[in-house]
Specification:
It contains three helices and five strands. It is α+β, with helices and mostly antiparallel strands. It has a five-stranded mixed sheet. A hairpin with a 5-residue loop joins β3 (48-51) and β4 (57-60). The chain is globular, with a radius of gyration of 12 Å.
Amino acid sequence: MKVTLCSSCALGQSGFADRLAGALQAEGIAAETATVDCMSGCTRPSTCAFRAPGKTAYLFGDLTPGDLPDLVTFARAYAASPDGTLTDARVLGELRFKAIARIPG
């Protein structure tokens, strides 16, 4: 899976991508974490995308450092899903309210 964070937003500028990468690695979740200059999510800044070949992609916004545990929970569920679809978003806590887009794979 590839996880991409906006580096133009406050969260991206704070080094959050490295913290997220470390948390995913500590949980044994295989992910390539990267940043990109702008993800055009300016109306809901501090965005993060998850995608994998053949799976639905997700874009989250309005993220804060406090969302780290929910992002790790999402990554675990996403990795376990054959097509990226989650049957119950409640396990994602507040992150489920921060979804901007779900893009079919």
